Amino acid sequence: MIYQNVTELIGHTPLLKLQLPTPNQVSIYAKLEMYNPGGSIKDRMGEYLLVDASKKGLINEETTIIEPTAGNTGIGLALAAQKRGLPVILVVPEQFSQEKQVLMRALGAKIVHTPKAEGIKGAIKKAQALASQLENSYVPLQFENPANPAAYARSLAPELLADFAENDLQIDGFVAGAGSGGTFAGIAKYLQQHVAGLKTAVVEPEGSILNGGPAHSHRTEGIGVEFIPPFFADVKIDEAYTISDDQAFEMVAQMARTNGLFIGSSSGAALAASLELAKTLPPNSNIVTIFPDSSERYLSKNIYQ
Ligand code: PMP
């Protein structure tokens, strides 16, 4: 197969059965989203946000795309925008990883920083202010845009079902972290429609507010919410696990040491939560979880120390 554009490489990522001791001999399978061309799950959404906006007539060949983002969304959007020749401005709270910002700039995006103390809410406000000043601009706004969960419901979720069906396996549990909540909501809702008896678990770091807070900063990057994602309104959530930074980073180290796998801290948190969900499932159940990106994106933050 010869591809014509790097965005054609998005999706159809590998599913890996992890080798580790688990409660109740549960098997844990991880969808390796770092194998997308931009290095994260957000390539799927970046491309689909622009497909959707284009279909709805919200953008044309000269629209500037503006988005508040922790980084991976910026890379995904920058890839999708580059293909279409559209300029991109990404509004990034200043605590996020340098590697992601270097990559966003390399793809041609302009970065605007907002203060760490204002969090993602500050970045959202700034993006909207920039858009109101700039004619022919569009803010996809992943935190509210139904095309965000839809991106995963139409690609990643069917891939999971197909992978399990081809191997005559049933999915008993689904675990994913929440930042915007799009990954969890889009996939959980789709799987619930297709898999009887599925148990779903959402994952947050300590410092996120799903289990009642209090809100504070955390080292685990890419997940954690400052407000309940609107996408959660119509999806059944069986468990919400709050994972400490130490737990997440221990899993990151363990996966490199024992499975030869470089995972980011949100993947580490998803794995720690999968081990918690395993305690509640019958023996020999199957859990599928999402590994959104790679540790290589966080080496400057000493992810292995
Ligand atoms: N992990 C990483 C590394 C991410 O960048 C993101 C997106 N911020 C997530 C998990 C969470 O994904 P979602 O926004 O779909 O909840």
TrEMBL record:
Which transformation does this protein catalyse, written as a reaction? O-acetyl-L-serine + hydrogen sulfide = L-cysteine + acetate
* Listed pathway(s): Amino-acid biosynthesis; L-cysteine biosynthesis; L-cysteine from L-serine: step 2/2
Q: What class of enzyme is it?
A: transferase
Q: Which cofactor does it need?
A: pyridoxal 5'-phosphate
> Can the keyword Secreted be found in this entry's annotation?
no
Task: Provide this UniProt record's keywords sorted from A to Z.
Answer: Amino-acid biosynthesis, Cysteine biosynthesis, Pyridoxal phosphate, Transferase
Transmembrane residues, as ranges?
A: none
Residue span, Tryptophan synthase beta chain-like PALP domain: 6-293
Q: What is its EC number?
A: 2.5.1.47
BP GO annotations:
cysteine biosynthetic process from serine
Pfam short name (any one): PALP
InterPro entries the UniProt entry points to: Cys_Synth/Cystath_Beta-Synth, P-phosphate_BS, TrpB-like_PALP, TrpB-like_PALP_sf
Q: Does the keyword Amino-acid biosynthesis apply?
A: yes
Annotated Gene Ontology MF terms? cysteine synthase activity
* SUPFAM superfamilies noted in UniProt: Tryptophan synthase beta subunit-like PLP-dependent enzymes
Q: Which family does it belong to?
A: Belongs to the cysteine synthase/cystathionine beta-synthase family.
Q: What name goes with this protein?
A: cysteine synthase
What is the organism of origin for this protein? Ligilactobacillus apodemi DSM 16634 = JCM 16172
